[in-house]
């Protein structure tokens, strides 16, 4: 590989990972070698690209501007290489950010089929229920449910799923009757990710619309905790069908008020801003989108 091109790709990875040593491990280079290559690049440019401390490496203003300009070029080069090969083979390591709920339930079980199509591709799964900084954390693609407040990223909607109310048979056996959304005011509510313990839930049935104020007895920032709390009988949880399908199929949870619809949950693939998504990231987004549109996925 051309030395300058190697330096540019290495600069990109250091910027994305915030670490000389992590970028070096990806490339099979020692930390001193990475430092030397970056220093040579800075000397050639006549600019300091990184602020270095004993704890972290961060981009300077000049470094951020340079990264913004070269990332589209590197992405275009990757795509050109991929196109010319004509084999459909993807290479390298794809950094994927997933939640412990949807990601582990719906994406990870489908990865064997994806990786069988691309045997030369490696995948690193970053599992977190916190919204990550894609650039700082070196993420190539993230899968997110719900609203997208961050306008600095590139987003592509892949699918949507019904939002459902669920509770365990044990909870329902000792709880007040639930025939109408207004009855929720007499129930224990589990406030999951993105839910204020005291907010209004909107419902629609045919032409009827109404809003019910809920009062969360238990709140959590993790979908898995909300579903576990519902299974344990702590109350009624709201989730995407993706987030509780296994429990519904097993009978551990029961779907409530099926005649009343809530707004669906959208799934987006998120890519770092500043450039085009890599061929591998786009391929995974296409694969997940197709898989989730299958007829048996949202029943």
Report on this model:
With 299 residues, the chain is an alpha/beta fold. It has three domains: 1-86, Orthogonal Bundle (Arc Repressor Mutant, subunit A); 87-157 and 266-299, D-Maltodextrin-Binding Protein, domain 2; 163-263, D-Maltodextrin-Binding Protein, domain 2, CATH 3.40.190. Helix content is 38%, strand content 25%. It has helices at residues 3-17, 20-27, 31-45, 61-85, 102-107, 111-117, 169-173, 223-231, 241-250, 279-292, and strands at 50-52, 57-59, 92-98, 121-127, 141-145, 154-161, 163-167, 189-191, 198-205, 208-219, 236-240, 254-256, 265-271. It has a six-stranded mixed β-sheet. It has a five-stranded mixed β-sheet with strand order 4-3-5-13-6. A two-stranded antiparallel sheet has the order 1-2. Helix 1 (3-17) packs across helix 2 (20-27) and helix 1 crosses helix 3. The model has no long low-confidence stretch (mean pLDDT 87).
Tell me the domain tally: 3
The profile of the biggest β sheet is: 6 strands, mixed
Portion in beta strands: 25-35%
**CATH level-1 class of the largest domain:** Alpha Beta
Task: Name the CATH architecture of the largest domain.
Answer: 3-Layer(aba) Sandwich
Provide the gyration radius in Å: 23 Å
Count helical runs. Answer: 10
Secondary structure category = alpha/beta
Average predicted local confidence, pLDDT: 87
Short description:
The chain is α/β, with parallel strands linked by helices and 299 residues long. Helices cover 38% and strands 25% of the residues.
């Amino acid at each position: 590989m051309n030395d300058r091109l190697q330096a540019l790709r290495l600069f990109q990875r250091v910027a994305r990972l915030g670490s000389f040593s992590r970028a070096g491990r990806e490339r099979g280079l020692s930390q001193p070698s990475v430092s030397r290559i970056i220093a040579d690049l800075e000397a050639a440019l006549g600019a300091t690209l990184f602020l270095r401390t004993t704890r972290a490496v961060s981009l300077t203003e000049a470094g951020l501007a340079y990264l913004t300009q070269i990332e589209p070029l590197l992405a275009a080069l990757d795509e050109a290489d991929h196109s010319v090969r004509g084999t459909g083979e993807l290479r390298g390591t794809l950094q994927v950010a997933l939640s412990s709920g949807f990601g582990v339930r719906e994406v990870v079980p489908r990865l064997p089929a994806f990786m069988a199509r691309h045997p030369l591709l490696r995948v690193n799964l970053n599992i977190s229920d916190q919204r990550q900084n894609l650039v700082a954390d070196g993420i190539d693609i993230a899968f997110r449910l719900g609203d997208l407040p961050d306008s600095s990223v590139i987003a592509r909607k892949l699918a949507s799923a019904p939002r459902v109310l669920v509770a365990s048979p044990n909870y329902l056996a000792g709880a007040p009757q639930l025939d109408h959304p207004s009855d929720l005011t007499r129930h224990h509510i589990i406030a999951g990710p993105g839910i204020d313990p005291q907010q209004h839930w909107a419902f629609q049935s045919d032409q009827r619309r109404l809003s019910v104020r809920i009062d969360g007895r238990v709140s959590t920032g993790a979908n898995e905790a909300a579903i576990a709390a519902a299974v344990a009988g702590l109350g009624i949880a709201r989730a995407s069908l993706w987030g509780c399908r296994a429990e519904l199929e097993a009978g551990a949870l029961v779907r409530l008020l099926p005649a009343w619809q809530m707004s669906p949950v959208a799934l987006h693939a998120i890519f770092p801003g500043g450039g085009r998504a890599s061929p591998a990231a786009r391929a995974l987004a296409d694969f997940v989108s197709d898989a989730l549109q299958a007829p048996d996925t949202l029943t």
